[in-house]
Amino acid sequence: MSSWTRAIGALAVLDTVLAAAASGLFLLKAAAGVTIPGLYLPVLPEIPDGVKVGLLWIPAGILVSAWRRSRRTAQERSATGRRDRIGVAALLVTALAGVATVLLLAGFAGITIPGAYVSVLPEVPDSVKVGLLWIPALVLFAVWKRSRPAAARPADPPVPEIDPPAGEDGGPIAVVRNVVKVYETGPVRVDALRGIDMEVRRGEMLAIVGPSGCGKTTLLNCLSSIDEVTEGEVIIAGRRLSDISDSEKSDFRAERIGFVFQAYNLIPVLRVVENVELPLLILGEDPKAARAKALGALRSVGLTGEANRRPSELSGGQQQRVAIARALVNRPTIVFADEPTGNLDSETTQEVVALLKQLNKESGQTFVLVTHDPNVARIADRIIAMRSGRIEKVYRPTEF
Ligand code: ADP
Ligand code: MG
User: Fewer beta carbons below 10 Å: N end or C end of the chain?
Assistant: First the structure.
């Protein structure tokens, strides 16, 4: 609190005490005829005491209001000033109506207080006048209650961040808001993502295209929680990635996210079915159940006959199909594929692309697919074209 505010506050208290004391003395003298010797100051004897006492309240009111204003910031003032004025008016009118009602009731009981009556509209009965006084009081109180600041309203439910939450029925599975990614390695600074806003819809197949170095892999890594964003936020299946602790993150990825990489990333010493069941075993699944699920996933990519072979005995297209089976075996919320056909010849590319499309159609699996091959991109439902860390344009497959 500034010294200015303190000084105004002290003056306000002094003047209020003075006005209250004078009013008390005046009321005692006028209503009850009681005088306390030595307490009266003979100032301006030609003005009636009632007027002088009333005038004392004006500087007191001004000082109190100036003190309150100087305590608040300009922002608070504009928000609450109107409400305060309505509240004060409501209190004043209510006090007036209350006093008038008491005087009226006292009059009914035969008690009259000299000097306390104002003779306005003598032809209207007193009880009607007093009753009418309550109307503005009630109206002002109603207006004051309605103008309560939003934050003080107790019944307001919390506003959900996303409505409906990402990943819940109907909502997007992934939401990316104003994501910025800066790599700073020593003196070099790379602005890999410069403000990305996008959503991935449930069951959608989304392709991300763009020239080498435009940020596709970075975006995918930020979406899949492999990498952390510099600014902005990513929400997957209703969970804000920044709210997930590092220790929880690997579980989150294992349970919700599937990955397919350009370089298959199969473990060469494990047989095909063992590669596919590995994510389930890591999550603690019963080995028998894991084996059954792995064989099911291999069937869905057309590799039942290769289950017991080693990856090196398979063609590139077959190896990538194993990687796809591995990505899908846990029925993840979303599958990210970074250049999944980058190592494949055009014929095998078509085979893998057809498989992805089929899995997307048949099981409603959501895919986000990075590719620089327009023929691959065109199988998607939407195509996001990136350039220099930004989304340049969003295409439908027929426009691309
Ligand atoms: P794309 O996948 O579209 O080819 P990337 O997302 O891999 O592009 O890269 C985007 C930019 O960020 C490039 O300039 C790249 O050199 C840079 N970059 C990517 N990863 C890193 C990293 N770990 N450290 C520093 N710079 C990186
Ligand atoms: Mg890349």
Answer: N
